[in-house]
Amino acid sequence: MTGQVQGKVALVTGGASGIGAAVAELLAREGASVAITDIDEFRGEELAAALKQAGHTAMFLPHDVTSEDRWVEVVAQVEKRFGRLDILVSNAGIGISVPSIVDMTLADWRRQTAINLDGVFLSVKHCLPVMRKTGGGSIIMMSSLAGLRGAAGLAGYCATKGGVRLFAKAVAMECASVGDRIRVNSVHPGIIDTPIWGKIPTEATGAGQNAPIDPEERAKLATPLARAGHASEIASGVLYLASDASAYATGTELVIDGGMNAGGVPRK
Ligand code: NAD
C-alpha cells in the first residue's frame, strides 16, 4: 500500500523528542524522506539511525532554529541530499512558566521568543524558496492551545504561540496570493505527555523553581477527555495536513486538545 506522503521530502525541527519525534517517525513510515533537526544531537542521531534500520529514509542535522546561518546550511544539505522539500514541520519550541509576568526576565522572554517565534520565521524564510522550486507543498507550524487562549503563568509562551498562529495565516495568504500551491496551517495541541513538561520548571530562571508539572494530573482536571494526549495523536494531525488529504485546507488551525478549547465538563 502506498504511504500517504510517499516520495515527499520532509524537514521536522525539534524532531529529536516528543511531538517532533512522533511526527518524524509517522512521516517516514508513510513514505517520506525525513530530515530531522534538533539541538539534541544524541537523541536526533539515535532516532535517525532507528528509522534507517527500519528501512526508512532519514537523516539528522544538528540545528539551533535561532541561527540564521545554520538555517542556510541545513536547507542546502536537505536540498543536496534529497533534491527537493515538500513538507516543513516547524515544531521546535520551549515553554517558560513564571508565577507572574512581572517575574519574567527580559532574557527569558527573548530566549522563548527566539526559539518559538524567530525560529518559525526563519524556517519559512529559508524553506519557502526551495519548496517553490517544485511548486507545491505543506508548511505546518506547531502552535498550542496557548496560541488560542490565555493561561496564567504562561503569558510569554501564549504570546509566542499566538504569534505563530497568525504568522501561519499570513504566510498562507501570501502563498495563495502569488499562486503557490503551498498550503500553510497551524496545529494546536492541548496537554500532551512529552518531555517538555519536565523542562518547564528548570526553564524558569526569572522567578526561581516552580513545582514540577505532571501533565497527566493536570489533564485529568482540565481536559474534558480527562487524560493527557499522546505525541502520536498530534502526529496523525500533522500527517493529515502534510498529505494531499488536506488539499483544500490552508490558513486554518487544527486543534487537538481532548476538548479543552470547547469548554468544560463537570467532574463527578
Ligand atoms: P519536547 O521538549 O519533547 O521537544 C521539543 C524539541 O525541541 C526538543 O527535542 C528540543 O531539543 C528541541 N529544541 C529546543 N530548543 C531548540 C532550538 N533552539 N533549536 C532546535 N531545537 C530545539 O517538547 P514537545 O512537547 O514535543 O514540543 C514540541 C512543540 O509542541 C513545541 O513547539 C511546543 O511548544 C508544542 N506544544 C507542546 C505541548 C505539550 O503539551 N507537550 C502542547 C502544545 C504545544
Question: What topology does this entry show?
Answer:
Blueprint: E1 9-13, H1 18-29, E2 33-38, H2 41-53, E3 58-62, H3 68-82, E4 87-90, H4 106-134, E5 136-142, H5 155-177, E6 181-189, H6 196-203, H7 215-222, H8 231-242, E7 253-256
Parallel strand pairs: 1-2, 1-4, 2-3, 4-5, 5-6, 6-7
Helix pairs in contact: 1-8, 3-4, 4-5
The structure holds nicotinamide-adenine-dinucleotide.
Family: Belongs to the short-chain dehydrogenases/reductases (SDR) family.
InterPro entries: KR_dom, NAD(P)-bd_dom_sf, Sc_DH/Rdtase_CS, SDR_fam
Pfam families: adh_short_C2
Terminal-residue CA separation: 45 Å
CATH topology: Rossmann fold
* CATH-level-4 superfamily name: NAD(P)-binding Rossmann-like Domain
Total DSSP helices:
8
What is the global morphology?
Answer: globular
Instruction: Please tally the β strands and state the result.
Output: 7
Q: Give the radius of gyration.
A: 18 Å
